[in-house]
Amino acid sequence: MTTTPTDSALAAFRGLAIGDALGMPTQSMSLAQIRQDHGVVTGFVDAGPSQRIAHGMPAGRITDDTEQAVLLAELLVEGHGRLDPVRFAEALIAWERAMAAKGSLDLLGPSTKTAVQRILDGVPASEAGSTGTTNGAAMRITPVGIATPLGSGATGLAAFVDAVQDASRVTHDTGLGIAGASAVAAAVSAGIEGASRSEALDVAVAAARVGETRGHWVAGASIADRAAWAREYLPTVPADRRIDAVSGLIGTSVASQESVVAALALVSLDLDPWQTLGIAASIGGDTDTIAAMAGAVLGAVSGRDAWPDDAVQLVESENDLHLEQLTEQLLVLRAGAPARA
User: Fold this and answer.
1) Which of 7, 154, 278, 279 could disulfide-pair with 304, CB 3.0 to 4.6 Å?
2) CA distances from 246 to 134, 260, 262, 270, 334 (A)
3) Can you tell me the distance from the alpha carbon of 317 to that of 297, in angstroms, rounded to the nearest whole number?
4) How far apart are the first and last CA of the chain?
């Protein structure tokens, strides 16, 4: 079936939400706990007995990954493609207070919470995200990938990473944070422009290499180098050992150099997108974020055939999501973006 850039963009946003919902019941759980409660995830399930953060949440419910991506998208549309840092910080704080009022434990991650509080305390936005190295920027960056074309050549890629850094610097203005977000956003944007999985991963590694030179330096392994290695390594692992390989060798923590790399490695398997997200939801650690990032990339490169209709319907109705309208607004920004040489 023929797919269009609009199809790919919408499938990317829906893939983020679907991956997030598949990983919701297993987030922050160990591999042993997941195997005991769920085995290998093959569909939406309720949060189980070992789930603390999302305790009691029903099958198909999203978490902070999708909610913050939607928030970022709405602010991008409101700002005609520009993100006001103080407005973003205030919106994130308001979001967390609303979640806490509902009794949710699914609150701001460590880097984001520290940064937004620093802004509200009067620290300049240029300094607030100087320690943020976790995957918070990468988990919500998909709207930037939808709204921003890649352009051509090194200059175009550098300008694309500028847009990622603008959306990330409030909370994750470090080489690690920007590299992780750049990799995910660039793969999504490449998919919208018609790239294959392999081509999108090439662009992801290249963007991460540019991103890791930006922002404040914090010690950590190169996301570009780790992603380049992992995409070649994981497909060589027998299918029944891949979950253990991702968990034990690549890593599944909130650290960008683990979770972002894990998501890209899973994309490299060239499996059915739904099956891939089930694996992502089963690997332990930050499963909802890993599955969300992988889902965004897989949706972008696969287009309208990526996700089962019943899965889309369940996630959008269960969470009152209106992703089609929001995606159309982001694509208007993309169409009006200045040409990048």
Assistant:
1) 7
2) 18, 12, 6, 16, 34
3) 22
4) 32
Q: 67-93: buried (b, 16+ CB within 10 Å) or exposed (e) per residue?
A: bbbbbbbebbbeeebebebeebbebbb
Cα 7 to the center of its chain, rounded Å: 19
pTM for the whole structure:
0.94
pLDDT digits (tens, 9 = 90+) for 23-59: 999 999 999 999 999 999 999 999 888 888 888 889 9
Q: How far apart are CA 48 and CA 340, in angstroms?
A: 48
CB 21 within 8 A of CB 45: no
Both tokens assigned to 43: 């569909």
List, for residues 225-245, the tens digit of each pLDDT value. Answer: 999 999 999 999 999 999 999
Q: What is the mean pLDDT of the chain?
A: 92
Tell me what pLDDT residue 341 has. 45
Note the residue count of the chain.
Answer: 341
| Cα distances (angstroms) measured from residue 331 to each of 50, 104, 189, 308, 326 | 40, 33, 11, 23, 9
